[in-house]
């Protein structure tokens, strides 16, 4: 097992109040070679779990094993076995990219030609060739994340722990970093955290959802999808009256049509149907102008919201 979380609890002291149970008796396992998304809203306990897995924070109860090593008693072996990209990727902005990667490698005991070789390989792997002679402070956020990934990989660990690796990136950078993570994931075990469902869908098959310190789902995305009914819902608005609204009921895969307003309709169709394209074609055929066409959030997002919406009756804040 690459990562084994066993009945892990973390309490944070709160002055003048009972300690906060940031992580509450969670257990899960990540198999070698898996890319697993660790999903949850802000404050759910993702970073706390990851900091314990990387031996930066001690557990209150329970433990985590990484590559068979216990974070409580074998922290050096744990750190040797994993690469870690922390949430706010603390980099030395005044250092040059290559200089920083040499420094990171030397912390892991690498030196000489082995280190030079590793630095060159990492620069190649994460796509930093053109930026390698710049100062880190001169790089865009996307390129800083690449430096962070190169740093995490420099000692060739079998396990990677990435804390919100794509937060704060623009859409192009996001696509690029996802691609880098996918490439890395071919050879490594990866646990990455995110608060965005699409991120998990883009990168992995398996997801663990945490909410308020507790695991609320753990399984394959396909299983989660089956749990939801998977239907697609679209709201379409036309400029003109639909002379014959029944025509909407003839669209491929359609299950039902509901009139929301004057020329606005909500249409629900079978999973995997291409409802928006069908509505578009219909409008073109009938000489209608579409003034709105919006697909409702996917059912997976719906599940995520359902699992992580706070429903506590005790809530007064
Ligand atoms: P996530 O990464 O899922 O957003 P965190 O693990 O960072 O969640 O935080 C979980 C909870 O623990 C939050 O309520 C947060 O405020 C609290 N917390 C995190 N770190 C500390 C700390 N060092 N001291 C006290 N409370 C903390
Ligand atoms: Mg966090």
How would you describe the overall organization of this protein?
The structure is a single chain. The protein is α/β, with parallel strands linked by helices and 317 residues long. It is 33% helix and 29% strand. The protein is built from ten helices and 14 strands. The protein has helices spanning 46-53, 75-81, 97-107, 112-126, 141-153, 171-185, 197-203, 221-227, 275-285, 299-308, and strands at residues 3-14, 17-30, 35-39, 61-66, 69-70, 82-85, 159-163, 189-194, 206-211, 214-220, 232-238, 254-259, 264-269, 290-295. A six-stranded mixed beta sheet has the order 6-7-8-3-9-10, with helices on both faces. It has a four-stranded antiparallel beta sheet with strand order 2-1-4-5. A hairpin with a 2-residue loop joins strand 4 (61-66) and strand 5 (69-70). Helix 3 (97-107) runs parallel beside helix 5 (141-153), helix 4 crosses helix 5 and helix 5 (141-153) runs parallel beside helix 6 (171-185). The two termini are 41 Å apart. Residues 312-317 have low confidence and may be disordered. Bound molecules: adenosine-5'-diphosphate and magnesium ion. Magnesium ion (MG) binds at residues 46-47, 87, 163. Pfam families: ABC_tran. Belongs to the ABC transporter superfamily.
Could you provide a short overview of the structure?
By secondary structure, the protein is of the alpha/beta class. Helix content is 33%, strand content 29%. Adenosine-5'-diphosphate binds next to strand 2 and helix 1.
């Amino acid at each position: 097992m690459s990562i084994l979380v066993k009945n892990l609890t973390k309490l944070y002291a709160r002055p003048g109040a009972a300690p906060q149970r940031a992580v509450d008796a969670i257990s899960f396992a990540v198999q070698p070679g898996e890319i697993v998304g660790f999903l949850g809203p802000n404050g759910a306990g993702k970073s706390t779990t990851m900091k314990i897995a990387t031996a930066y924070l001690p557990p209150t109860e329970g433990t985590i094993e990484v590559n068979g090593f216990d974070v409580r008693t074998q922290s050096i072996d744990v750190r040797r076995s994993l690469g870690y990209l922390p949430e706010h990727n603390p980099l030395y902005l005044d250092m040059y990219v290559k200089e920083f990667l040499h420094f990171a490698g030397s912390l892991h005991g690498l030196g000489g030609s082995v280190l030079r070789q590793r630095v060159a390989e990492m620069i190649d792997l994460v796509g930093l060739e053109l930026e390698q002679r710049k100062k880190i402070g001169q790089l865009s956020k996307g390129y800083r994340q690449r430096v962070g990934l190169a740093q995490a990989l420099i000692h060739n660990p079998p396990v990677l722990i990435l804390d919100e690796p794509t937060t704060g990136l623009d859409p192009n950078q996001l696509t690029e970093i996802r691609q880098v993570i996918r490439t890395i994931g071919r050879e490594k075990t990866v646990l990455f955290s995110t608060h965005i469902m699409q991120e998990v869908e883009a990168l992995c098959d398996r997801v663990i959802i945490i909410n308020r310190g507790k695991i609320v789902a753990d399984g394959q995305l396909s299983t989660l999808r089956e749990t939801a009914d998977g239907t697609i819902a679209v709201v379409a608005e036309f400029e003109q009256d639909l002379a014959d609204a029944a025509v909407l009921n003839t669209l491929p895969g359609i299950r039902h049509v509901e009139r929301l307003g004057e020329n606005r309709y909500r249409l629900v169709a079978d999973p995997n149907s291409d409802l928006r394209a069908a509505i578009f074609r219909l409008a073109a055929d009938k000489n209608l102008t579409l003034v709105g066409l919006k697909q409702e959030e996917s059912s997976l997002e719906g599940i995520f919201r359902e699992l992580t919406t706070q429903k506590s009756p005790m809530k007064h804040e």
